[in-house]
Structures are given as structure tokens and as C-alpha cells.
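Hey, quick one: can you model this chain's 3D structure?
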Amino acid sequence: MQDIFEQSALSNFTTDEIYQILRKDILTLKLSPGMLLSENQMSQRFNTSRTPVRNVFARLHRDGLIVIQPKKGTFVSPIDLDMASQIIFMRALIEITVMKQVIRHPDQVLFQKLEENLKYQKEGIDNNISCEEYFKLDSYFHELSMIACNKQKLWQIIQNMDVHYSRYRLLDYHSMYNNEVLLNLYQEHEQLYQYITTGASEKLRFAVFSHLYGGFLRMGTKLQNEYASYFVQSGHTIEEILIEIKLTLKENRQTKSKPEKDNNIVTV
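Sure thing. Here's the predicted structure for all 268 residues.
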């Protein structure tokens, strides 16, 4: 007699469940950029026929998460690092504007939530928090100000650019993961909090650009060497992207001490 529990464990996944699992695996880099995906392998993994897997692959292809090359196979799509860099540029301008709005209209409830988030970050670091869990706390720290300014939909738009941007962020976390890096990120968050609560709007531009572009600088030559196969070249080489980022930081550092007029920043 077949074990009823064993039989239950072998129940088929639905097509949507397979899609959600593979999508998460790609976005969290469990399936790395460039990895070959086999219909047979996935059929065995999910105890299903090839037809549902083929349908899932088609859906992931429409999402831009996989590429299908005739006579070669199906692969996890590479990360467009140039796209990730430009998304960061856009996000920085938006966050600077939102943080300045918070300064103009102080919100004690928001400040309390930011303090709690910082507390959780520090406690997590002291207790060897996982990469994925710190990623969530990091993201929520930035999201809080967006929510307070009623810009949560705009935040969601940025987060939905996950084909390239979110995978780049997680690559930064995974490749450079250690307590020293997390402590540095925590200290940067703490400094941003101080700027917001003390009204130091003139310091925000350089601080936000420096913070958001930090991953590129942390990974540095790893992008060109160890992880080169993860990326697709689209317009700019990795070296050109890094140079452009350094120039952007230099320009914003020069204006760090100069008060900025709000109409010089994109409004939201």
C-alpha cells in the first residue's frame, strides 16, 4: 500500500504556482543570470508534464526574465547594468524630493517608524540577520518616507522594475555580504534619518546619490571580472558605467554645501 503522505507530497503544482516559484528564484538569484533552464528538469522538480512548464517559460519570457534561443535552449535573462544604473538615478531624484517634502512637513509618526526600522536593522546585524531579511528592512526604510508623502504607488513602480534593478541589488547583497557592509549601510540610513529630522536638506542630494550608488562602488571590479557573465552590454560597458557613476557623485559632492531650490529637482 502506497503511503498516503508520500502520495500527497507528490501532488502536482499548478501552473501559476510554478510560475511564482520560478519568478522568485530568478529575482532572488537562486537561478543566476545566464543559467540554462531545462523543461525536463523543471518537469521533474514540480512533478508535472512539460506542457505547464512550457507555458510558464512563455510567461517568464514575456516578463523579460528568461530568453529563449532557438536550437540553443532557454536561459535566465542577463542583467542590464546600464538600465539598473539609470533606474538608480531616477530613484535618487525622487527620494531626494520626497525627503525634502518630509523636511518641509515634519511627521512625528514617520520619524517614530524610521527609528523603529533602524532599531530592527541594528538588532538584526547584531544577531547575524540573513541577506534577504536585511534587504527587506533596507527597502522598507526608504519606502516609509514615500508612504508618508502618499507616493507609495510611485515606490511600487520603481520596485516593479525588478528584472534588472532588484536583481542587481540582491547581487550586491550576496556578493558583498558581511557584517561590516551591513553596518555601513545601517550607518548611512542613520545619517539620512539625522538629515531628515534636523532639516539638513542641503546635504541630502550627495548623501542619497552616494547611498544608492554604493553597490556599484562596493562591487567594483567584481562586476567586470567575477560577475561579467551576469550582464548584457546595452549601450555602455561596465567600465563606462562605473566612470559615469563616479562623475555623478563628484558633481553632487561639489554642490553638497550649496542650498538647492526645490524647482531644480524633479517634483512628484
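One thing worth noting: The chain is about 65% helix and 5% strand.
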